[in-house]
Write a structure and sequence with these properties.
The protein is an alpha/beta fold. Helices cover 32% and strands 13% of the residues. It has ten helices and eleven strands. It has a six-stranded mixed sheet, sandwiched between helices. A five-stranded mixed sheet has the order 2-1-3-11-4. The protein is globular and about 60 Å long. 46% of the residues are buried.
């Protein structure tokens, strides 16, 4: 039985596979812990360091375009809405989305998935000309060389949170995509940097105070539910064992089923539990068919933002390893 090194984030619906409660036919799963897991994305893309690894979906698409020997199964372990991810600096005068035009907005790196989704929603829903915005970054992209000219790098070592508090940027994304960390992914990354609290006129405040309502409305109108991770494999393994993607998909689907058999309310993942209540359905659906609208939106947004070349494959099955992927 061959060993497979597997790196996944700390998701309760993936633990049965990592803990050995769910088997992967023909293989012994050897979990590798990388904290934060975003640090593993770069290592997988640049060095193919692991056999199986969670990846940011936009980074995966970019890797495929660059010919990096990776493929994936349509397992999306994490999903998030994004209307609540934009904070505005005190005194910026930003009140509506179009006020962001011509401003400076902080984001960890231009190609981070949160940034791609936020820019796409701002343009599609609110008519924001995102090309007029200067995107201020303080970390590298996993795949370099694709950023447009309106991206500026922080060079003095200060974090995006520092710049937002000082009013030197007009707005910033939150969490791991912006002010909730500083620099490249490393141990203690998120915990080490205090995120500016939205406090109204005396401090950073949200662009959308009613973000939750707007996000659900957007989902109900469009069917787009932002993807935030997928599961990749080294292509060499798939070439050697064409059935591996189907088996891996089945094992991850069973892992989710096994977890939900004991915790059907998603209580072990509070944000996913909240999203399950908002949507009235599975907060992390797997498969291509059940994620068609979200996948198409992600490819379109990444293409429009010049991260993918014109004509990037829009045939969704071609983005994944050949296999059997029933919705799960």
């Amino acid at each position: 039985m061959g060993k497979l090194t597997v790196v996944l984030g700390d998701y309760p619906h993936a633990r049965p596979l990592l803990d050995g409660d769910v088997g992967l036919d023909g293989h012994q799963v050897e979990p590798v812990e990388v904290a934060p897991v975003i640090g593993a994305y770069r290592r997988m893309i640049r060095d193919l360091e692991f056999d199986v690894c969670e990846l940011a979906p936009v980074s995966y698409l970019m890797a495929r375009q660059e010919g990096i020997a990776l493929t994936a199964v349509p397992v999306f372990l994490n999903r998030r809405f994004h209307h609540g991810d934009v904070q505005c600096a005190a005194g910026s005068g930003i009140r509506v989305p179009r006020d962001l035009e011509g401003r400076r907005i902080g984001v960890r790196a231009y190609s981070v998935s949160t940034g791609v989704w936020v820019r796409g929603v701002l343009r599609d829903e609110y008519g924001v000309d995102i090309d007029t915005i200067t995107w201020v970054v303080d970390d590298d992209d996993h795949i370099e060389g694709r950023v447009p000219s309106n991206v500026e790098r922080v060079t003095d070592g200060r974090s995006l949170g520092d710049l937002l508090r000082a009013g030197e940027i007009d707005a910033a994304l939150t969490g791991n995509a912006g002010t909730g960390r500083a620099g490249a992914p490393r141990a203690g990354w998120s915990a080490g940097t205090a995120e500016p609290e939205p406090t109204g006129e005396e401090g950073p405040y949200p662009l959308f105070p009613d973000a939750g309502t707007l996000a659900v409305d957007h989902y109900l109108r469009t069917g787009v539910y932002p993807l935030h991770s997928l599961v990749s494999l080294r292509s060499e393994l798939v070439e050697r064992e064409p059935e591996l993607p189907t088996r891996l998909y089945a094992a991850l689907a069973e892992s989710k089923r096994r977890h939900l058999a004991g915790r059907p309310d998603w209580a072990a993942a509070p944000r996913l539990a909240r999203q399950a209540r908002q949507l009235g359905t599975d907060p992390v659906p797997y498969g291509i068919a059940s994620n068609e609208r979200s996948l198409n939106a992600m490819v379109r947004f990444a293409s429009d933002q010049r991260l993918l070349d014109p004509g990037f494959p829009a045939d969704l099955p071609s983005l994944f390893a050949p296999g059997d992927y029933p919705d799960a």
